[in-house]
Amino acid sequence: MAILTARIEERDEPSGKRKSYSDHLWKDESDVKTSVRAVLRRMAPGVLGCCMYCGSTTGTDIEHFEPREKNPAQTFRWSNHLLACGPCNSTYKRTWWECDTETGEPLLIDPTREDPFTHLFLDLGKGTYRRLTRKGQKTIDVLGLNLHERRFPEARRLARKCARRVIRDWGRARRDSDEAGMRDALDVLRIQPFADVWQSMLRQAVMPGADIVMDGEHPEVLYLLRNEELRAATLVDFPVQAAPAAGD
Questions:
Q1: Which residue segment(s) compose the domain that 222 sits in?
Q2: How far is CA 149 from the centre of its chain?
């Protein structure tokens, strides 16, 4: 990938050769794309590798965070790759790219580089996101994270119900010293789609006034969400990968 990037950068950008050459390489280098997709699937949430943007379904596409159309030199740069579903990649984000005029930072959350919960707050009762920052609002708008036609709010509410049931199963298995049952419950929590719902539940359970913030969550569930053993096993620290060194 580094060799391919160097080849693209050698092309004369003003003449348009860099873009056409990068398109040719991206179309031709199927082995590279297969390898990249395989690694991204292992990084992505869910047993089959869910979309890193919406988290709802299997990611099928290698998404270029900074679009190739905007910067052909980013075509094979590992740090520019995400796993996305077809709708997020081709219908919603597409070639959208906007940066803060003062900082130069992209106005879209990159979940491999930053904590999404710095910018977004999930209303678990409604299943919709609220902005915490300008970047959070742009991410909601560009990816359609609250659009009912994408059925995300309904699906997130269902994911919360499923998580409640599983966490209670984990609690019963723990009381019964059933290690196999505990492992099974943890496996379900780790691999389910909409991992953002479970991660939000874990984070909000330790906030001040959690019983109000979490829309009257059952005391048993709140108690289990605060269990250090459960949190250590399932709470994800962001970013997912360290920022690459210069030249990587």
A1: 111-236
A2: 20
164: nearest Cα among 210, 121, 222, 215:
222
Count of domains observed in the chain: 2
For 173, the token pair is 């298995």
- Residue 93 scores a pLDDT above 70: yes
Q: How are the residues of the chain apportioned to helix, strand and coil, as percentages rounded to the nearest 5?
A: 50, 10, 40
Q: What is the DSSP letter of 109?
A: -
Whether residue 144 sits in one domain with residue 61: no
3-state secondary structure of 82: strand
Note whether 85 and 159 are same-domain residues.
no
The whole-number pLDDT of residue 150 equals: 95
Q: Which residue has the tokens 């991204």?
A: 40
Helices (H), the chain: 2-10, 17-28, 30-43, 86, 134-143, 152-175, 179-191, 195-204, 210-213, 219-225, 228-234
CA angle 135, 72, 14 (to 5 degrees): 115
Report if residue 244 sits inside a domain. Answer: no
pLDDT for 242? 47
Average pLDDT rounded to a whole number, residues 79-90: 96
**Distance from C-alpha of 97 to C-alpha of 118, rounded to nearest angstrom:** 20
Token match 């709010």: residue? Answer: 153
pTM (two decimals): 0.90
Q: What backbone torsions phi and psi does residue 131 show, to the nearest 5 degrees?
A: -75, 145
DSSP 8-state symbol, 89: I
